[in-house]
């Protein structure tokens, strides 16, 4: 049989789910994560994968994902070979 929990306990159990949904909410975060799930990519590669997103919005969303430690960013001093 299941035991009854106090409302305060239920709220504590739901908080992590609420936080995860808040972090992943929005139109662009999941498509960005899907793009990155195929490997490391440069900014413009992600921009091409996620159709319709502006560079400004992509930059904002990537910063939020990095702050929430869902992605890591590596900066290189060189440009990619053509």
Protein architecture, described:
The model has no long low-confidence stretch (mean pLDDT 91). 56% of the residues lie in helices and 0% in strands. The longest helix is centred in the N-terminal third of the chain and has 18 residues, at 7-24. It has one domain. It has four helices and no strands. By secondary structure, the protein is mainly alpha-helical. The chain is elongated.
Topology:
Elements: H1 7-24, H2 29-36, H3 43-49, H4 55-67
Q: In brief, what are we looking at here?
A:
The protein is mostly helical and 82 residues long. Helices cover 56% and strands 0% of the residues. The N and C termini lie far apart (64 Å).
User: What integer value in Å does the Rg equal?
Assistant: 18 Å
Regions with pLDDT < 50 over 5+ consecutive residues? Answer: none
User: What quaternary form is this?
Assistant: single chain
Encode the helix/strand succession as letters.
HHHH
Mean pLDDT: 91
Using the alpha-carbon principal axes, give the shape: elongated
Annotation keywords:
56% helix; single chain; mainly alpha; 82 residues; 4 helices; elongated
């Amino acid at each position: 049989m299941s035991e009854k929990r106090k409302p305060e306990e239920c709220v504590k159990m739901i908080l992590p789910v609420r936080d995860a949904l808040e972090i992943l909410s929005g139109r662009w975060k999941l498509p960005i994560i899907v793009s990155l799930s195929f490997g490391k990519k440069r900014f413009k590669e992600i921009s091409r994968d996620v159709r319709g997103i502006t560079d400004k919005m992509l930059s904002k969303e990537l910063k939020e994902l990095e702050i929430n430690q869902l992605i890591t960013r590596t900066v290189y001093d060189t440009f990619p070979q053509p």
